[in-house]
Q: What sequence folds into this?
């Protein structure tokens, strides 16, 4: 999918208009951003906004993301932490003494 | 004030132009200095004149904004003023210009480079084999030079394309970070100004209501419960009465017995049009 983020009022207004006019190409619309379908038409609309508003329009490609796409130890850490008994325990404290990666380790690993 | 209209110069606190074909809007604009004619020589108007420098039946009025401006003209400040100045300065200091990005380059396919590498290796193998055999090598050597040259070119292009892409993304991100920062500051400034306005209104609300009560010629069915719902003409007059008004006010309403009465009530120089 294509993520379109706008940084000015004018760009935001035009994005809204595009989304209204081409609902079939809009996967989801947020306040000043929208996900367009990954078609040439979606790209065409995104590029039109970029042509008109320059860097005030940010374009990104978004790939589907499922839990299975992530290494098992990350999934397990998330599951275990959300299952903790004391809600106020910070992750750092929770992870120490368990067989879980530290936050620093997680930060250091690219997906 | 001194005012020159149709060849006549008027001087004094009150000028009555009802017998002249002069538009009140033109006089008000001239008072603000945004028009050379008619020639007005008077104290320069404060910001409150942008809202109610000319009182006329067709006027609109953002009553609360105008009243807050009037309160400022009386020297009222608020607890938010320092923060407002600071936020304005921070906003002004932010570089807003869009950066120029390095030229975009066509990306070079990784497969193209891999393919060329393979061909270079294969050609080199063939060259070595021919050398071992003692066969003629010139043609193969030439092909190797050409292929290796193309490979080097493509690799350079690929590096340049990657670099340019990275720089483009970095600069765009910095710019957008600044844009986001601007938005944050602008939001905070807007909130502070709203709070400041609220505070200013609180300070002068009673004076305003009292002034509104004494606006001449206000029919009872025009008196709303909330003073801020008053129609533009009486609201504007009440605001002028409590604002600091050194510059001439253009009055185009019949509420006052005479232009002098208007000047007296408003405590301002008056041009009656």
A:
């Amino acid at each position: 999918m294509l993520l379109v983020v706008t940084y000015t009022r004018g760009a935001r207004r035009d994005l809204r208009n595009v989304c209204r006019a081409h609902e079939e190409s809009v996967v989801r619309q947020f306040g000043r951003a929208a996900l367009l379908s990954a078609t040439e038409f979606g790209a065409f609309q995104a590029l039109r906004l970029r042509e008109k508003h320059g860097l005030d329009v940010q374009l990104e490609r978004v790939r589907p993301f499922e839990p299975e796409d992530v290494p098992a130890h990350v999934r397990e850490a998330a599951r275990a932490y959300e299952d903790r008994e004391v809600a106020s325990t910070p992750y750092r404290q929770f992870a120490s003494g368990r067989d879980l990666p530290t936050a620093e380790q997680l930060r250091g690993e690219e997906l | 004030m001194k005012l020159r209209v149709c060849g006549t110069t008027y001087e004094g606190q009150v000028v009555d132009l009802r017998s002249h074909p002069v538009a009140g809007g033109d006089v008000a604009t001239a008072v603000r200095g945004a028009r050379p004619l008619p020639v007005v020589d008077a104290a320069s108007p404060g910001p409150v004149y942008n809202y109610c420098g000319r009182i006329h039946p067709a006027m609109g009025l953002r009553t609360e904004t105008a009243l807050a401006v009037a309160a400022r003209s009386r020297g009222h400040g608020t607890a938010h003023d320092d923060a407002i100045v600071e936020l304005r300065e921070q906003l002004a200091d932010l570089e807003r210009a869009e950066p120029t990005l390095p030229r975009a380059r066509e990306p070079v396919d990784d497969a193209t480079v891999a393919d060329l590498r393979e061909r270079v290796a294969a050609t080199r193998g063939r060259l070595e084999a021919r050398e071992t055999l003692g066969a003629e090598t010139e043609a193969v050597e030439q092909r190797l030079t050409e292929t290796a040259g193309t490979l080097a070119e493509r690799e350079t292009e690929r590096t340049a394309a990657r670099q340019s892409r990275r720089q483009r993304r970095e600069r765009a991100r910095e710019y957008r970070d600044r844009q986001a920062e601007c938005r944050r500051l602008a939001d905070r400034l807007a909130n502070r100004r709203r709070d400041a306005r609220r505070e200013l209104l609180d300070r002068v609300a009673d004076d305003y209501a009292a002034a509104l009560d004494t606006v001449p010629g206000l029919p009872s069915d025009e008196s709303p419960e909330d003073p801020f719902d008053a129609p533009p003409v009486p609201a504007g007059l009440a605001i002028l009465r409590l604002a600091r008004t050194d510059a001439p006010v253009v009055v185009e309403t019949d509420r006052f017995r005479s232009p002098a009465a208007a000047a007296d009530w408003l405590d301002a120089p008056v041009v009656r049009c």
Summary: Residues 67-104 of chain A form one domain.
